[in-house]
Amino acid sequence: MSRKIRVVIAKPGLDGHDRGAKVIARALRDAGMEVIYTGLRQTPEQIVGAALQEDADVIGLSILSGAHNHICPRVMELLKEKGLEDVLVVIGGIIPDVDIEKLRKIGINGGFLPGTPMQDIIDFITRNVRTRLERV
Amino acid sequence: MKSVLNGTETDKQRWEREVLEPTLKKSPERAVPFTTISGRPIERLYTPDDVRDVEYGRDLNNPGEFPYTRGIHPTGYRGKLWTMRQFAGFGTPEETNGRYKQLLQAGGTGLSVAFDLPTLMGRDPDHELSLGEVGKCGVSIASLADMETLFDGIALADITTSMTINSPAPMLYAMYLVVAEKQGADWKTLSGTIQNDILKEFIAQKEYIFPPRPSMRLITDVFSFSAREVPRWNTISVSGYHIREAGATSLQELAFTLRDGIEYVQYGIDAGLPVDEFVPRISFFFNAHSDFFEEIAKYRAARKIWAKVMQDRFGARDERSLKLRFHTQTAGVSLTAQQPYNNVVRTALQALAGVLGGTNSLHTNSLDEALALPTAAAATLALRTQQVIAFESGVTNVVDPLGGSYFVERLTRDMEDGAYQYFDTIDRMGGMVEAIERGYPQREIAESSYQFQQSVERKEKIIVGVNGYVAEDEPPMAILYIDEAAAERQIAKLEALKARRDNGHVQRALDAMKKAAASTENVMPPLIDAVRAYATVGEMCDALREVWGEYEEVPII
After folding, report:
1. B370 neighbors B12 (Cβ within 8 angstroms)
2. Max Cα separation, chain A?
3. Which CATH number is A6-135 given?
């Protein structure tokens, strides 16, 4: 397996608090992944478009505003439409426990709350992205 | 503060040789870096030798005397306590109005409005980008009608209100003025604050709409309008808070914030305003982070630097132009989702730092804010934290109790020197607008933020409950959950409003705003007319977007 894991880090919604998105982007890059940061205020369409164009293995969403219940289902729906169901989607931010469960049901298993060590996220991605990389 | 020199050896050096070294041989210090949360190395002891370059009259002086290092009021908190101003807003204006009445009932002494993201970004609740965001991070305010509801039953003549609003600040300010007028309040005596600080949005929080230069022009329009019409209003709250939350060090917060302040003063002067006419209405807003003494030194250095810069660089003469007044908020970023009750303790210590640093107003965060917006019970406990400091701790009996501490004075001086170095760098770039355009402060902050995260990962910095003293199986906490009902109600109210208002008046007012924006005419008068006609925040911002365009940043990781 010579290909590096390709990750699109995206900041959907109107919120501009991008500290977490930037720190994780840099941590994943330092861990040997290829990271594309979309910048602020991306619609689900733009995020999935970026994943397609960049041939991403992983999409990392950073949401702190409470808009995850609207944004995440839309992202998952669009991924399915584009035949990108095997892209691993993870989310970081301020997500109430009840919503973590809802996100799991639509296929987002990696939900990372404040205080999560960077290494945990790196390990989660490395462990779970494998199926797609093997298929490629 | 002179020390006795024995030959070439200072007293501290003698102590190190005679007392410290034998001790270290027997029992070494803990093998941890002794640094502040910002990474600043701290010595084990400070003595008169460390403050030989600090002169009382020149560098500290008494409270109420230039350069105000020890405070702007001669009586400190013996005269007036700080304003206990709790930032609040969620859901609909009706719901937030209820929370305000509860906070005032509980002894809060000022209001502070948190707006939702659509309002902050100048979008109406029915805009496609507002999907899922209405009422989530603050209260949704689309028009004057919502503002009337927000302050229903609250006499604006009798309280002061701070509004955290930046790009659409003129719109929300105008709404507040019109509500006050309808209540019969006089603009000449009305007091409050709009944040109106766009530079820190470009630097840190990223809630901008228009490009930097028209944004700066909008701010100077507010300065000159207010100086004439609402003379007691704080027209800007130059904010380090968000710069710090984005990952800046304490020094970067201090330096970038004050340099932003300098930029606003320069733009005001360039727009033809006499310095002493608008500078007295500039206020500041700092973070209170966890490193106790570094924060106290930051506030003391801030007052000193501002006084000197206003006098030396801008020739300000009015004492009110020299006195830096500031609001403080405890550090949201320091709160943990793990063991959230620990946050009460963090917040109390941070608040105490703000008080010992002489803050003029204070917001204490609630213990549940790493999880959600605060519940009513959590918000009340946060206010009680301030009341315990004010009435039980005894720290309010004396002005600047830490003044003269060898450590605090050394740190204050070092913060000051560090800030001037940043000023030089930014001045060489041509100013703060130019520095932002080059991504300079953004890059500095991203770097500090990553360094801090790495020090946490390496456990050089311990965060209790996160990377040390971790608890398994924490009980879940009841949080404030905001559903979609607020969005539905706000959208329905907006539709009804558009059907009943005089849409011809709205259109004429918006056209007048555009005309003013395209010329050098002050935008505020036509904007106030648009507000009176119940034009929405989205409509008014769109009018200016048409003339000035929108800003898009190049992200810097």
Report:
1. no
2. 39
3. 3.40.50.280
Residue-range definition of the domain harbouring residue B373 = 56-457
| Alpha-carbon dihedral B86, B91, B94, B100, rounded to 10 degrees | -10
Question: Measured between CA atoms, how close is B555 to chain A, in angstroms?
Answer: 6
All residues of chain A having their beta carbon less than 8 Å from the beta carbon of residue B121 are: 14
Quote the distance between the C-alpha of residue B331 and its chain's center.
11
The count of other CB atoms within 10 Å of the CB of residue B227 is: 18
Residue in B137, B333, B457 nearest the CB of A119: B457
- B529 vs B508: CA distance, rounded Å: 9
8 Å CB contact of A37 and B467: no
Measure the N-to-C terminal CA separation of chain B; round to a whole number of Å: 45
Q: Are B372 and B479 in contact (CB under 8 A)?
A: yes
Interface residue A1 vs chain B (CB under 8 A): no
- Asked if the Cβ–Cβ distance from A66 to B370 is below 8 Å, we say no
Element (H, E) at B420: helix B406-429
Residue B534 lies in a domain: no
Residues of A in Cβ contact (< 8 Å) with B481? 96, 98
Q: Do A17 and B131 touch (CB under 8 A)?
A: no
- Enumerate residues 358 to 377 of chain B having a beta carbon within 8 A of any beta carbon in chain A: 370-372
Q: Do B133 and A26 touch (CB under 8 A)?
A: no
The tens-digit pLDDT sequence of chain B (557 residues) is 445 555 689 999 999 999 999 999 999 999 999 999 999 999 999 999 999 999 999 999 999 999 999 999 999 999 999 999 888 999 999 999 999 999 899 888 889 999 999 999 999 999 988 989 999 999 999 999 999 999 999 999 999 999 999 999 999 999 999 999 999 999 999 999 999 999 999 999 999 999 999 999 999 999 999 999 999 999 999 999 999 999 999 999 999 999 999 999 999 999 999 999 999 999 999 999 999 999 999 999 999 999 999 999 999 999 999 999 999 999 999 999 999 999 999 999 999 999 999 999 999 999 999 988 899 999 999 999 999 999 999 999 999 999 999 999 999 999 999 999 999 999 999 999 999 999 999 999 999 999 999 999 999 999 999 999 999 888 888 888 888 899 999 999 999 999 999 999 999 999 999 999 999 999 999 999 999 999 999 999 999 999 999 999 888 88
In a domain, B115, yes or no: yes
Pairing type for strands A6-12 and A34-42 reads parallel
DSSP-derived secondary structure letter, B28? P
Q: DSSP letters along B250-283, please?
A: HHHHHHHHHHHHHHHHHHHHHTT--HHHHGGGEE
Query: Which pair of structure tokens corresponds to residue B96?
Result: 């937030």
Residue B177, domain member (yes or no): yes
| Mutate: best of A9, A11, A19, A99, partner B, most B CBs <10 A | A19
Kindly report the length of chain B.
557
Select the residue of B132, B370, B556 nearest A67 (Cβ to Cβ). B132
By C-alpha distance, the chain B residue nearest A27 is B450
Cis peptide leading into residue B441 (ω within 30°)? no
Domain count, chain B: 1
Residue B184 placed within a domain:
yes
* ipTM for the complex shown: 0.91
Closest residue in A to B480 (Cα) is A96
CATH number reported for the structural domain that contains residue B147 in this entry: 3.20.20.240
